[in-house]
Amino acid sequence: MKAIADLLFEAKILKNIPRTGFAFLGAGRESVAEHSFTAAFIAFVMSRMEPEVNGQRLVSMCLLHDLPEARIGDLNYVQKKYVTADEDRAIADVVENLPFDNDIAELLAEFNSQQTREARLAHDADQLAFILDLKSISDVGGKTPEKWLPVVRKRLKTELGKNLAEAVSTRSWDAWWMETYAE
């Protein structure tokens, strides 16, 4: 139980680790845990839209995909040009002594390899979480997302991901409540 308690504390630390890409965007902020929740929720929705996929694997990959950042931090695209993180070692250290060590390691390896339908959808959920942030910032007057949105949309790998990005792009961030708002 000690190793499991340690894992829970390690996952919790992601609430305190900021996503570093927002500094380059010039607006917004988010913790790694907040991002992972949004990606996992998008994955849940995707699993209902494509019931033939293994929804538990899809959601689990999104929930876990940034767990190594508890040890290596959140390296953005600029930092990754200069800093090489040993994610494999971080994962090995995270799962050491866990009774389900292979489960976590296999899910992260599957996510990183992008060889399965679930992994490609998980990748898109990860990107869609960022697209939601960019669209929200844009809708409240931020200008830099206009440059970023096309770049992030090009990263999408699945038709479902592309369709969801299109739907997000054509809706206002507050339409979900504003359309029914009554004074």
List keywords for this structure.
mainly alpha; 11 helices; 183 residues; Hypothetical protein af1432; HD_domain
Chart the SSEs and their pairings.
Blueprint: H1 2-12, H2 22-25, H3 32-49, H4 55-64, H5 69-72, H6 87-95, H7 101-113, H8 117-139, H9 145-154, H10 159-169, H11 175-178
Helix pairs in contact: 3-4, 3-8, 4-7, 4-8, 6-7, 7-8, 8-9, 8-10
Describe this structure in words.
It comes from Desulfosalsimonas propionicica. With about 180 residues, the chain is mainly alpha-helical. About 65% of the residues lie in helices and about 0% in strands. The protein has a single domain, classed as Hypothetical protein af1432, CATH 1.10.3210. Helix 6 packs antiparallel against helix 7 and helix 7 packs across helix 8. The longest helix is centred in the last third of the chain and has 23 residues. The radius of gyration is 17 Å and the shape is globular. The protein starts with a helix and ends in a 5-residue tail after the last helix. The mean pLDDT is about 95.
Brief rundown of the structure:
It contains eleven helices and no strands.
Q: What is the CA-based Rg, rounded?
A: 17 Å
Helix and strand composition category? mainly alpha
Task: State the end-to-end CA separation.
Answer: 53 Å
Give a short account of the largest sheet.
none
Which blocks of ≥5 consecutive residues have pLDDT under 50? none
Count up the domains: 1
Oligomer: single chain
Count of separate DSSP helical elements? 11
Can you name the CATH architecture? Answer: Orthogonal Bundle
Class in CATH? Mainly Alpha
What is the helix content? 55-70%
Mean pLDDT: 95
Catalytic activity: a 2'-deoxyribonucleoside 5'-phosphate + H2O = a 2'-deoxyribonucleoside + phosphate
Cofactor: Mn(2+); Co(2+)
Keywords: Hydrolase, Metal-binding
Domain HD/PDEase: 28-140
